Amino acid sequence: MTVGEGKTWTLPLLWAMDSIRRMAQVEAMVYLTVWFVTNIAITICSKALFKDLRFPYPLMLTAIHLGCTAVMAIIVSYTGVYAPEAVTVSLLKHCLPFSVVFTLNIWLSNYSLMFVSINVHQVIRTTIPLFTMLFSWLIYSERYPLGLLPSILVVIVGVAVTVWGDFDLTSLGLALVILGCALSSLKGIMTKKVQLGLHTIDVLRIVCPISVLQLLLAALLDGEFMGAARRHKELEWGVLLTQGLLAALLNFVSFKCAHLNSPLTMNIAGNVKQVVTPVFSHMIYHTQMTLVGVLGLLATLLGAVWYGYDNSRFKAAEALSKFTPEELTPEPGEETGFITAADIELGDSIVINEAVSHQVVCPIPGTLPEDS
Asked: What does UniProt give as the signal peptide span (predicted)?
């Protein structure tokens, strides 16, 4: 079937499609904002637990985080909000490798905060986008346009300048943060793969209990479990529970964000968070930002905007490349040549020849954009 034959897209339908696209973008932005704020709160609270409240139990802290997430996921699964997936042996096997990466990622992020400052922790984690590009290529043979690299480098340099200061860094701390960066990137990529066909709540309902068992076993072997048990009367259980609930919210939102946004977009948003977190840290500990730090912050925000523009441009070019010149050209005598539903597959972008002189890109109704 050629373009323009069959049932055409009417203007009201096009407007409806555009409304759906905009609603999807707003949804992605809302989830990304909640993820952003909660992530900052968790990072600062975790550091405060280790430093101010003297809670040297990262395995137990991570188990509390994921335990709260598991309980919330199980409760939600009984509310009728969605139809829960039946837990089978094959499903557990499908989720088990991801649960290991998921557990190690959160534990290493908490554990490394015991050895490095928030500033050092954040600046090293700006390498995550590079790990994402590398793993996408090595594991899934996916490639990002090299044209995105300059904007990513600007973000990395901006964050490095912002948090540059007292690098009280040990070899162990450096190794832990770098390994955490690699696992964080891998977790972001695997989230989109393991979530295919599964609801976000199902992923958390299945993965989190497995992760809690892994963490409790590790805590027993490491001695953390007995250490925390001996000090149970001294521990601030209200603070721990509050942080566990925040972590549960973060895990819910993180999975939803990973579904609505590409891994690289999440990494860039994470890099902006890497700048804002030290700013709040400076405010809490009554230190002042230098002029160089402010310039670094501006450079990071500029790089993030640059990345968003370039990524949108590359996506539009990729969508256009799926069609031949004949498909993009209206037939003689036609004022409009709209593409029909039969011409495309669900999930692809479609190019609508709104007039002879120009085209606009619009998603199929019912689908979500890969990038907000």
From this structure: none
